[in-house]
């Protein structure tokens, strides 16, 4: 008689419906879940002040223009597969949508958190950073040796993800030190919540600055983009851990809001598109 893992079926059903409806835009302040996974991820492995590309350019904001900019950015940011495949070839090999951050730490989206993947990677602890309304409990191997922790936080600016930074970081480190275990952290897409938790671990136990930690994870999983509130939480966490700040918030006229300076490449794109739209409007 064939045994069906009900948890696994429900898990995939939720993922299918989520990935059909969710659209990630972590820069804008809207309450949404993480980006739907693009089904690939590589596995392996400047701060500027007010004079950056978004400051010193005083342009009147216009909501229709911003909407057009957002639409363009969304189209340009989705083709992650080609980018990630290239990076994977240079840095390492991809494995079922899971990104290797350290020997003991992997990051992925919910669709990649499968039992066969966990077994082949030797995962001994799974951290699920989603609410039960988004995803059911992650299917685990049947050997009952895999630990499990849920961080029930939504991906929005009101979420208090920072209350879990120490607990999650400690759990990952304990798993590694005591048993030589491997932790897999996931949310819906491995972009915002789970990435933020991994950054907190690198800040606390690998003594990285937030900027260095972000660049480390970004090099191994290019699609990460913690929402702005989570970055602010991490900035405070870094200050409490190290007494210094490596990331600052700068104002971007194109979106009429503050953004972390580690998102400067996106700043340039936004500003370029914003100015292009302004020129087109002026010609009409």
TrEMBL record:
<dbReference type="InterPro" id="IPR052103">
    <property type="entry name" value="Dual_spec_Phospatases"/>
</dbReference>
<dbReference type="GO" id="GO:0004721">
    <property type="term" value="F:phosphoprotein phosphatase activity"/>
</dbReference>
<keyword id="KW-0378">Hydrolase</keyword>
<dbReference type="InterPro" id="IPR029021">
    <property type="entry name" value="Prot-tyrosine_phosphatase-like"/>
</dbReference>
<dbReference type="InterPro" id="IPR000340">
    <property type="entry name" value="Dual-sp_phosphatase_cat-dom"/>
</dbReference>
<feature type="domain" description="Tyrosine-protein phosphatase">
    <location>
        <begin position="97"/>
        <end position="243"/>
    </location>
</feature>
<feature type="region of interest" description="Disordered">
    <location>
        <begin position="22"/>
        <end position="51"/>
    </location>
</feature>
<dbReference type="Pfam" id="PF00782">
    <property type="entry name" value="DSPc"/>
</dbReference>
<feature type="domain" description="Tyrosine specific protein phosphatases">
    <location>
        <begin position="163"/>
        <end position="224"/>
    </location>
</feature>
<comment type="similarity">
    <text>Belongs to the protein-tyrosine phosphatase family. Non-receptor class dual specificity subfamily.</text>
</comment>
<dbReference type="InterPro" id="IPR000387">
    <property type="entry name" value="Tyr_Pase_dom"/>
</dbReference>
<keyword id="KW-0904">Protein phosphatase</keyword>
<protein>
    <recommendedName>
        <fullName>Dual specificity phosphatase</fullName>
    </recommendedName>
</protein>
<dbReference type="InterPro" id="IPR020422">
    <property type="entry name" value="TYR_PHOSPHATASE_DUAL_dom"/>
</dbReference>
<dbReference type="InterPro" id="IPR016130">
    <property type="entry name" value="Tyr_Pase_AS"/>
</dbReference>
């Amino acid at each position: 008689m064939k045994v069906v893992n009900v948890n696994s079926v429900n898990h995939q059903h939720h993922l299918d419906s989520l990935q059909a409806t969710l659209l990630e835009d972590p820069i804008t302040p809207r309450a949404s879940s993480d980006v739907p996974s693009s089904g690939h991820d590589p596995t392996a492995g400047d701060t500027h002040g007010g004079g950056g590309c978004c400051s010193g350019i005083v342009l009147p904001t216009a909501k229709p223009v911003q909407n057009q900019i957002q639409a363009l950015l969304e189209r340009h940011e989705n083709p992650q597969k080609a980018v990630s495949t290239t990076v994977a070839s240079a840095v390492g090999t991809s494995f079922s949508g899971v990104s290797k951050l350290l020997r003991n730490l992997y990051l992925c989206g919910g669709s990649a958190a499968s039992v066969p993947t966990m077994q082949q990677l030797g995962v001994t602890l799974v951290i699920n950073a989603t609410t039960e309304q988004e995803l059911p409990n992650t299917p685990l191997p049947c050997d009952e040796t895999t630990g499990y922790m849920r961080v029930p936080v939504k991906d929005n600016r009101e979420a208090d993800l920072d209350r879990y930074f120490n607990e999650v970081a400690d759990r990952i480190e304990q798993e590694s030190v005591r048993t030589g275990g491997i932790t897999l952290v996931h949310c819906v897409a491995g972009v915002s919540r789970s990435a933020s938790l991994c950054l907190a671990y690198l800040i606390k136990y690998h003594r990285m600055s937030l900027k260095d930690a972000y660049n480390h994870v970004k090099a191994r999983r290019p699609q990460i983009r913690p929402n702005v509130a989570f970055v602010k939480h991490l900035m405070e966490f870094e200050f409490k851990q190290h007494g210094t700040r490596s990331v600052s918030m700068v104002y971007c006229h194109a979106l009429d809001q503050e953004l972390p300076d580690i998102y400067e490449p996106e700043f340039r794109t936004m500003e370029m598109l914003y100015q292009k739209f302004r020129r087109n409007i002026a010609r009409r």
